[in-house]
Specification:
binds 2-acetamido-2-deoxy-beta-D-glucopyranose; Collagenase (Catalytic Domain); PRA1-like; globular; three-stranded mixed sheet; about 260 residues
Length: about 260
């Protein structure tokens, strides 16, 4: 472990003077650090993209795939962030998915996926809660109250998820295909469940694509915090600007299966 300097953060009402203290390089106890602390190897705030931690239960084969999957997740989130930085609420995609409301919330959420500190969150490949073994069709799950910062990726994910460069191919359209078609979209959803990334702010309000569109029109203040709205937005933008420039693969909203 690298030696670290912990800086107390001026947080909320309990503002306190900045005070630096040394943490022994052998101590890895996150619990010994106040939850309002930030870790940094230098005095300035970290700016590089931190890696998503992959648990040792993932063997080399799985770990190599997960590393690439997380790179794509960060790429998708980064692109969504940059699109919002450039166009803000005037983006037609922001209008479509967030109702033209302020985009500062989605901007913050995508920024956190792209570059928030990863804390002690982890993605594991064993099956501690036995959901992979017992729940038909589960390809992974957030561990919830059993371990809020942990996510399990079941073997099934490794046979089902597509790479982002297949976006707009194989019959995929944003409107008519599942949000978990790709590693990047599936993992975006999984990071939204982890409080280290989402600060518990992202939830499921809409049930399907039609509801996502309806919500943007009626209660856009919810859309900005809706897991599926955020995923559809990021995918639609990436399809239009990267996968099939100027064309995209939004799909026909009227064909959406209920
Ligand atoms: C991980 O971090 C969270 C939040 O900072 C803390 O509540 C939890 O105890 C930590 N878990 C471990 C295993 O260190
Ligand atoms: C890693 O685990 C997967 C899934 O359990 C397995 O199919 C694969 O053979 C393992 N790879 C190595 C190098 O052990
Ligand atoms: C938490 O652990 C219990 C006991 O092993 C298990 O029954 C439950 O399904 C787990 N919760 C989740 C969200 O996996
Ligand atoms: C925070 C904010 O701007 N909320 C607005 C989002 O859009 C709806 C509908 O136009 C407004 O009623 C909210 O005030």
């Amino acid at each position: 472990m690298r030696s670290s300097i912990f800086l107390s953060l001026l947080a909320g009402a309990a503002a306190s003077p900045l005070a630096a203290r040394q943490e022994s390089s052998t101590s890895t106890s996150a619990a010994s650090v106040a939850s309002t602390s930030i870790e940094s190897t230098t005095v300035s705030l970290p700016t590089a993209t931190p890696l998503f931690p992959i648990h040792k239960s993932c063997n080399s084969t799985l770990s190599r795939q997960l590393s690439r999957a997380f790179e794509e997740t960060v790429e998708l989130a980064t692109h969504a962030r940059d699109h919002l930085l450039k166009y803000g609420a005037s983006s037609p995609f922001a209008k479509k998915y967030f109702g033209g409301n302020t985009t500062v919330t989605p901007l913050g959420i995508f920024s956190r996926v792209a570059s928030a500190d990863r804390g002690n969150m982890t993605f594991r490949c064993d099956d501690p809660d036995k959901n992979c073994a017992t729940q038909e069709g589960w390809a992974g799950h957030w561990r919830g109250t059993n371990a809020t910062q942990e996510t399990v990726i079941c073997d099934l994910s490794f046979t089902k998820r597509r790479w982002l460069d297949s976006l707009c191919g194989l019959g995929y359209t944003v409107a008519n295909s599942p949000t978990n078609t790709f590693w990047a979209t599936d993992l975006l959803h999984r990071t939204f469940h982890v409080p280290q990334i989402s600060e518990d702010a992202v939830h499921h309000y809409a049930e399907d694509f039609a509801e996502v569109l309806e919500m943007a029109k009626t209660t856009p203040e919810k859309s900005a915090f809706d897991s599926d709205s955020l995923i559809y937005f990021a995918t639609d933008v990436y399809a239009y600007e990267v996968a099939a420039p100027g064309v995209g693969c939004s799909g026909d909203e009227d064909d959406v299966e209920e």
